[in-house]
Amino acid sequence: MARKTPAINTGSMADISFLLLTFFLMVSSINSEQGIMRMLPQKSNNEDQPKEVDIKERNILKILVRSNGDILINGTTIIRNNEILSKLKDEAKLFFSNPQNLPNLPEKKEKQCGLLGTYNVSQGVVELTSDNGATFESYIMVQNELSKAINELRDELSFITYGKNFDKLDESLADERKSIMQAIPLNIKEKTE
């Protein structure tokens, strides 16, 4: 008669595997958050509604994201099918900084900016328009380039003033961060066609 091979009880192995799986699911994080960090306006009553502010033409940088992938700045096609997006960043950086105070770029207005004191703040506003058929990827790429331009300007001012890049100013330096953000605001007006 043939000898029976003893069976291995695997019931406890299933329990251990389940506990390990549960442990790794609880301690690991899945970072799937994507989005654009923007401050949304507070909800207000009709009487508190801000009135449309007239903005001088020189203070507006008009960017149009077209459905065919073209990106126009002030009516001139500069980017075709999402190539050379850094050109958009450079244009935005020049627009917001206006280093020579040129009459075709935004004017500057003296404002109190926290620890920086009085600072000449750009009055520039980006009017970002997208066609109904424009891709989300193109729109996000434009938003990213505008954010890069502002971040580079904030880094430059922060390094000159505090000896650190803007992103190195941590929570303990909240007043310094706030003053840099007041001196170099990100003003984007969005609409669709």
Describe this structure in words.
- With 193 residues, this protein is α/β, with parallel strands linked by helices.
- It has one domain.
- Helix content is 34%, strand content 18%.
- The protein has helices spanning 11-27, 86-97, 136-162, 174-183; strands spanning 60-65, 71-73, 76-79, 108-112, 118-122, 125-130, 188-192.
- It has a 5-stranded mixed sheet with strand order 3-2-1-6-7, covered by helices on one side. A two-stranded antiparallel ribbon has the order 4-5.
- The mean pLDDT is 80.
Describe the structure concisely for a colleague.
With 193 residues, the chain is an alpha/beta fold. Helix content is 34%, strand content 18%.
Arithmetic mean of pLDDT: 80
The proportion of residues forming helix, as a percent range, comes to 25-40%
- Number of discrete domains: 1
Low-confidence stretches: none
Total helices: the number is 4
Largest sheet, strands/sense/barrel: 5 strands, mixed
Indicate the structural class: alpha/beta
Q: Compute the separation of the termini in Å.
A: 86 Å
**Series of H and E elements:** HEEEHEEEHHE
The side-by-side strand order for the widest beta sheet comes to 3-2-1-6-7
Number of strands: 7
> What is the radius of gyration computed over CA atoms, rounded to a whole number of angstroms?
26 Å
User: Strand-residue fraction?
Assistant: 15-25%
Large-scale geometry: elongated
